[in-house]
Every structure is written in structure tokens, then in C-alpha cells.
Amino acid sequence: MKICVLMKQVPDKNASLAISSDNCSLNDNNMTLACNESDNYALEEALLIKEKHGGEVVACSLGNETASQILKDAMAKGADRSILISDEKFNNFDILSIAKIFASTLKKENFDLILSGLQSDDQGNSQLGMILAELLDMSHASLVMGTEIINEHTMKVKRELESGWFQWTELSLPSSISIQSGINTPRYATLKGIMMVKNKQTDTFNA
Known about the structure:
This protein is of the alpha/beta class. A 9-stranded mixed beta sheet has the order 9-8-7-10-6-1-4-5-11, sandwiched between helices. The chain has a two-stranded antiparallel ribbon with strand order 2-3. Helix content is 26%, strand content 31%. The longest helix is centred in the N-terminal third of the chain and has 17 residues, at 37-53.
């Protein structure tokens, strides 16, 4: 099972925000950054699937060079390698353009599963996993609160519906699924995991 986890670096929820001099963006010089909350749950779900069924987990992020820190954290927790997509030309792109960048980078990897957090803490559009499924010709499910691999071609997901209801849905692989926060309990990096990061590979791509 070859799994990709999309991870985004966002402003920490407790960070103080300052407007830049252009009055159109945030001043990020001294901003505290962190990994997007629901992406942590996506990573944990990928690691649980790997532990049960074997395979490889690859963490991937699109952002500035600082985003390499959340990839290091992911590898310290158990991801096998990482991919950083970084270029100033990608700044301020809309979600469709961002999805196309991810799709062009990940297409040659032939992932069985692409996991993403349901939404980012900064933009919150909840569209990336869905658009990637279309661009890469994958099945898709959103608001996922549980996963179960049936075989190499099929999986089941538990989707959160309205009013406290849930629905189990069968998907064909490959698939792109959007993970809801609370699906599991994200782990902390161990000292051994942190020490092993230096032996793991990060591939960097630009425009």
C-alpha cells in the first residue's frame, strides 16, 4: 500500500496576526507556524494503515522552505520519505491551481491512497482532496471518520453525515479521501524517530 499524505503549514491558532504594509496580506516575519490540524489526523491514519497492511507513507507539502519542518515532523512520526513543492511562483494560487500542481507532481508516483485533512485552518475551502480525485482519476470520499482496507483494489470508509449519522461506503482504489479531525489520536514523535529523520529522503520540486 503506497500512501501519500498532504500536509500544510499554517499560522498557529494562538499566533498574533499583523497586517502587512500593503494591507492585502499578513506579515509572516515573526508568525508562529504549525501543521494544519486535520492533516495530523490524516498522517496518523496513514501510519495506522501502513502498520496493519504494510507499504510506504510519503508526506507531501506545498509551501515555503519553512514547510520542510512539518515534513521532518511527519518523518519523525513514521513517514518513510517526503516531498516538498516550493516556488515563489506558487504563492497566492487558488485551490484549483494548487491541486493541478499537486497532481502533476504526484501522478508519476502512482499512489494507492492520497489522504488530506478535510480543510485547512487558514483557507478552509475543503476542496483539495475532491479536485485531486478528479485530476488523477481516483475515487473520493469526504468527511471520513474511519477506514478499512478490504483488498488491494477496494476499501471501505466511514463518512460523517448530518445529525450524528454515519455511512459506510465502499471505494475502489486508487482513492483520494479527506480526513475529518477526531478520526484517531495523533502520535508524538519518539526520540528514535527524530534521530532517524536524517536518514530519510526529501525530494524538492519547483515550477
